[in-house]
């Protein structure tokens, strides 16, 4: 009899802990958020974290020397001497770098379900792709092209993947989706703004060739949280902006094109 009761209890417990097929997992509870301090350089990637916090409506402390990039960097070195980069963020007592990692940590710990498509949705994988594509492929390519072209301007585009191909990839996606997160604005859009702005502002690509990116940028710039970020993180406009290229390279044929 005791064995029968024990077996029944085990079956009941298993039934309680098993998720029915197709059922969505329970939402993770938000952790208590510690003090978040953003160490910032004006007109740099650290704007992403300020913008994120403004979108979430969460408190943070912003540290930088207005109009003084060297002074701002000195503040970063105080807390992160081994890797003085922007953004450097302290989450409680922990120092964290890399804007994508910072954004995902804040969202996953303190704002689960915010600015991220549902994991079971078709949009989730695209959101994650653009979250990582922003720095993993796009930013590196655009910055490398800019630096090389400043040394020796090219006479034609690379036949392989260069900045223009990267922009066309984003353009084609935005022709079918309103946001990089899919149907809704997400943290992927926050990640993509910096590298797309970089290439267009510095003439690495011809910005007139990408109407869907330009339309997306207009929606981004109209967001109240983005405007609040600009007022706090870029109060004097562009600080320490790099010189634009005198002319972008002309487009050329790519593999598979005539």
- Global outline: globular
SSE run: HEHEHEEHHHHHH
Helical/strand content category = mainly alpha
Average pLDDT across residues? 87
Structural Rg: 23 Å
Classify the helix fraction into a percent range.
40-55%
What would CATH call the architecture of one domain?
A: Up-down Bundle
At the third CATH level, what is the topology name of one domain?
A: Glutathione S-transferase Yfyf (Class Pi), Chain A, domain 2
Strand order of the largest sheet: 2-1-3-4
How would you describe the overall organization of this protein?
This protein has about 260 residues and is mostly helical. It is built from 9 helices and 4 strands; from the N terminus they run H-E-H-E-H-E-E-H-H-H-H-H-H. The chain has a 4-stranded mixed β-sheet with strand order 2-1-3-4. Mean pLDDT is about 85; it is low at about 1-25 and about 255-258.
Entry summary:
Among the domains are: about 35-110, Glutaredoxin (3-Layer(aba) Sandwich); about 125-225, Glutathione S-transferase Yfyf (Class Pi), Chain A, domain 2 (Up-down Bundle). It is built from nine helices and four strands, in the order αβαβαββαααααα. The protein has helices at about 1-15, 45-55, 70-80, 100-110, 125-150, 165-175, 185-200, 210-220, 225-235; strands at about 35-40, 60-65, 90, 95.
